[in-house]
Amino acid sequence: MKKRSRLGTIALFAAAIMSAAMQPARAESVLRVAKTSIPRILDPIFTTSFTERDFGYLIYETLFAVDKSFQVRPQMVESWSMSPDRLTYTFRLRDGLAFHDGAPVTAADCIASIKRWAERDVMGQTLASFTKEWIAGDAKTFRLILQQPYELVLSSLGKVGSSVPFIMPERIARTPSSEPIKEFVGSGPFIFDQEAGTGVKLVFRKNTNYVPRSEPSEWATGAKVPKVDVLEWIEFRDGMTAVNALTNGEIDLIQELPHDLAPLLESDPKIKVMVYNEIGQLGFVRFNFLQPPFNDVRYRRAVAHAMRQEDFLRALVGDAKYYKVCRSIYSCGSPYETDAGVPKIDFAIARDLLKDAGYDGKSIVQFMATNSATIGPISEVATRLLREAGFKVEAQAMDFQTFTRRRLNQGPPEQGGWNIAFSTWTGSDVVDPIVNATLSGAGQKAPWGWPTSPEIEALRSKFAREPDMEKRKEIAAEIQRVNYDQAIYIPTGTFVSLAA
Amino acid sequence: MLPYLARRLVSALPIVAILAIATFIFLRLSGDPTAELAGENATAERIEALRRSLGLDRSVATQFGLWLGHLLQGDLGTSLITRQPVAAMISERLEATLSLALTTTVTSVLLAVPLGVLAARFKGGLLDRAITLFCVGGFSMPTFVAGYLLVWLFSIRLGWLPAQGYISMLVDPAEWLLHLVAPTLAMSTVFIVLIARITRASVIEVLGQDFVRTARALGATEVRVFTLYALRNAAVPIVTIIAVGIGIVLTGVVVTETVFNLPGIGRLTIEAVLARDYPVIQAVILLFSLTYVVINLAIDVAYAALDPRIRS
């Protein structure tokens, strides 16, 4: 930390020096982290925001977690077993688990937490659809009874990404999933100090009673050992201000460094710019399947032939070392990554498809969330590429909150609806065909865009029941082929997140 | 004076009421926060359920009636996002904004009025031109540019000032002031220019009047001429621009609070607007409206004090 020199300033500044000198030496170690936004709802089950998820990982624990090679490993669970008919899972909690209020973590807490999560999360809902019942045994043992075999039980309980199945005390987990919780007690490595925070700062204190796992820490698995006494999350709405604060030694870490500011810090020998989320983020295209022209697969295929990832990534990130052209619909680097069925980028093909479909030159309405640092640039590049492919585009700019509301309009553009829009996921949200909600072909039950594809749904169901990993990979590849053939979900490139 | 003040106050209340109603209606027309709150994969049913649980499915008239009823009992409501009392959220952010407004106003007045008087005294001379040049430069520079330049010079290069943040006056008064130096300078730039230009013009106008010539002819010193005759008689437009400037400071505080990471009302307003947090937006707009009413009242009082003819 660089000390501020106040030499040569007026008497007022001298008073400040005296004041600083009279402060007692700081006994506890503090890590001050700049965040683009701090969580405000404080319920990582109620909302899918990533900042709420990060909050969850500090104060809560999960039954299982995923390591950097996407292997599911026990976290709160000491041991687990599966019956020969694959219908009963038995879990035993490890010793020493206790909530921040001192109460031990019990089977009842785990069951209540998982049930609440399963009401909100897509993967949880899938698990719930296979579930017959949850049964608490003794305080540390519980069982899951399935109606039919489901091979993603552990992946579901160890889910990373948005809406993680965190374990809370039963009394809190009984809060209806349609309401946010009001009490923030977990069993994780940090305790949330609600009184110490402000509207722009959250404070967490080391949980001295926390018993970490013995395995080394790897991604979301293993030992979670707090190395500071106090962790402060400070909200910096302006990236440049955070860079100034880091340069001046007033904070210790910028968790989400904007890519365009990285060069300012890369040349500073005292500061290290690093990749903090290797699995990255990715943008994607979303069509409104209910309205012309994208209710016709030929128009969707035309778009798929025009989504040149380099254009998106250069605009969004710039430096090629921080992005990757990868057209797999699953996270790049994940076990299911594949190039099956990937269409060629060719604007001539796109234009031919439009001609075959009899495109009459009517404008398509594209929604753009311009105040989003990721969706904004992606949408602007998309407008250009769509025009290059032969579409006439009416780009409608709006703020993100309006975007999230208006994209739910299923009506035609004349009634406030839309034809095409873009959004982003983190890589962990698209790691397989089940967790990837954007792949859903369930029509009205699918997220905004409402694609209907019984073929995709059948393959996803088959994937969920297949125990053999190699066969699951084949099914995943087949899902990707169908996805690109029907042009349901088209990624626009993967980029990593930076910290400094 | 009191009947005069009462008349002014009563005449301002309908404006506040109209503003409150208009804000309430237009906010509802701009959409609600449920779609974002419900999450990326939310179905229409889930969003509707959330809307019901937040009471946003009721008619606008019903919602307004409930809000007004609570307001009359001194309850500003509860944030839709944080579920904290709005009054607590505002009071938590008020200190930083009031501190910045206070230091900016005091600094601006203390610097700008003497600058304007000096420019008037040496009208057409080198000092007048230098002050004019400063004014043109200051007025042309956006607050955020001034802010970044100040941070670069005083924090990054010289290390004299913190680059960002706010320390409460109650925690450490010296650090409070240190953290406000750069934001105050950044915000004062335009304010100083406005006051200095008006002061210069007003003083020049007064200096040309007969009573000043008479005072000089009777042997009054230049200090006496400027302080007792010129500045006092030029005060009405100067007070007006100071009051207008306080309004500009309050509305312009958003940028400064962002550049210097101050936890003030400006940032709270932006966060609430982006999140469609109705109760917070309504309360903040009500607060700003009342502030303007108070500022206008203060101007009226100042006018009446400075010029007894206005009272009558």
Mean pLDDT of chain B: 87
What is the CATH topology descriptor of the largest domain in chain B?
A: MetI-like fold
- How many E-type strands of chain B? 0
Largest sheet of chain B: none
N-end to C-end Cα span of chain A: 14 Å
How many domains of chain A, as an integer?
A: 3
The fraction of residues assigned to DSSP E strands of chain A is: 15-25%
Largest beta-sheet characterization of chain A: 6 strands, mixed
Biggest interface found: A-B, 59 and 55 residues
Specify Rg of chain A, calculated over alpha carbons. 25 Å
* CATH class call of the largest domain in chain A: Alpha Beta
Quaternary structure type: heterodimer
Task: Count every helix of chain A, treating DSSP H or I runs of 4 or more residues as helices.
Answer: 15
Q: What's the domain count of chain B?
A: 2
Principal-axis shape of chain B equals globular
Question: Helical percent range of chain A?
Answer: 25-40%
Radius of gyration of chain B: 24 Å
Model description:
The complex is a heterodimer of chains A (500) and B (312). By secondary structure, chain A is an alpha+beta fold. Chain A folds into 3 domains: 115 residues, Periplasmic binding protein-like II (D-Maltodextrin-Binding Protein, domain 2, 3-Layer(aba) Sandwich), CATH 3.40.190.10; 107 residues, Dipeptide-binding Protein, domain 1 (Alpha-Beta Complex), CATH 3.90.76.10; 219 residues, Dipeptide-binding Protein, domain 3 (Roll). Chain A contains 15 helices and 19 strands. In chain A, helix 3 crosses helix 4. The longest helix of chain B is centred in the first third of the chain and has 36 residues.
